[in-house]
Each structure stands twice: as C-alpha cells, then as structure tokens.
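Need Ketose-bisphosphate aldolase's 3D structure for a figure. Predict it.
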Amino acid sequence: MLINMKQMLAIAKENKFAVGAFNVADSNFLRVVIEAAEENDAPAIIAVHPTELDFTKDEFFQYAVSRAKNSSVPFVIHMDHGDNLASIMRAIHCGFSSVMIDGSLLPFEENIAVTKEVVDVCHKIGVSVEGELGTIGNTGTSVEGGVSEVIYTKPEDAEEFIEKTGIDTLAVAIGTAHGIYPKNIKPELKMDVLQEIKDKVDIPLVLHGGSANPDEEIAKAVQIGIQKVNISSDYKYAFYKKCREILSTTELWDPNAIYPECIDAAKAVVKQKMELFNSIGQAAVYRKESIQPWRHEQN
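Structure prediction for Ketose-bisphosphate aldolase:
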C-alpha cells in the first residue's frame, strides 16, 4: 500500500515508534527494503536522493510505485533532500507521495520562503512535505553531503518555521552526520535539544544521518519523539561488503549468482534497524486503522 508521509508518521507518532527511511539506488536496494518490510510486517519509507533518481531514471519508479501499491504493508516513496522546485516536481511526476525540500543552508527567512513555496504546490495534490532546520554533518562517505560543522536546530526557530511553512514533518539537527563515521570520531547526539524541540512542536520529527550511530542513542531519540530515521550507508555498506567478499574469492559474473547473498546481508541490517525503531509488526496497525491508499489530489 502506498501512502503519504503525513499518513505514515501520524500512526507512528500515536503509537510511539519510528519508521526507517532507506535510500534506494537500484533494483537490488528496492528489493531489500520491500522484502524486509514484508517479511517483518513493518512500514517502511523508500527514500530517493536526487542523484539516485538521476542514476535509476524516472521510468524505474513506475515499477517501484506499482510494487509498493500492491504490497500488504504501507510504504511511502519519498524524495530525499530535494534541492529546488524542479527536483520536487520531477519526483511528483514519478509518483512519489512525499518530498523533502532542503533549504537548511539558506538564511532562516529564505528557508521559510522556499519551503512554503513547495508546501503550497504539494499540499494541493496530497503530497507530504518535509523541511529541514539546522544542518546535518558530513563524514565524507555519502552522496547526501552535509557540512563540516553541525548547526543545531533551535527549538524556538522550529516552532516559527513550522507555523510559517505548514510542513508536515521536520528534520532536526541534533548531532548526526551523513555517511559512516571515521574511526577517530565518536558521534554524540544532543538529547536535550531534541527534548526541547519535542516540547514545542506537534508535528512528526525526522532524524537524518541515522547510520553508524550507537544503537542506544537512536533508541533514545525514538523514545523521546523521533518518528522517522534516515538510513542509507549502513545497509548499503553491508551489501557491498558481501559483494566484495564474493567477487574476491570467485570468478562469478551472473547477477543472480552474486547478488542473493548481498541482498540477504543488507536485509539483515534493515531488520536490525526496524527492531531498533520498534516498527516490526506495526504494519498491522495501519490495516486496523483502515488507512486509505494515497493518490494524487487527495486531501
């Protein structure tokens, strides 16, 4: 079942769990996410960065949308870090039910203006919008980028930002970074900042850069009030680690001989994240609530 982010995270917020947003870069990773979700009866978000959409091409998502719509578990197909209205419109044309507009590097008032422009367009056709306030770090190992120094989200700014833009979800900066952390860097999330934001706003909150952080910190963030956690590097790393092992010890060349073990390795990581987010088995809640499938132009 394909739904939008507002539908997905309203249930997660009410039932105190988070949903994983897993970046998909080809058909193997789409398989990983969908099959892991179905095997664990867990809701999931198929996230696609603009560079990943450039690589997979628009036509690929005709299949992705069809596969999600015909599943028994709820999925969102989400544009991750859309950088302008053109990339947002491309995602909508491909059938995405949710988008993110990332104006976090802009001055506060410009971020509000850009984000509100996207909200005004998307809400007319039932597409959910995620905004971002504050900046996410960059470990240098991810296509999603980031900055060298994190700017933490100010709780009072979050309140104003939501009020002036009308976004459905807010990505907050509390100390995470995109990618896998180098061995000499130990991430530490500022739970006090997250708690202050949670106390001031009502909409679902998003944690970017969820890979390679200590499990106990991610679990604590979910407990406080994170409803969506973005995961990309952790499960892709597992896939290609297994792929390297196979290719270094064999002369296989058929994808159907090489990739099955890689898919299983990535699915094990996705399942572990779903356990951490308390989302396993939660697809049943959406069925019980009779959540209606998403379609363009729904309100």
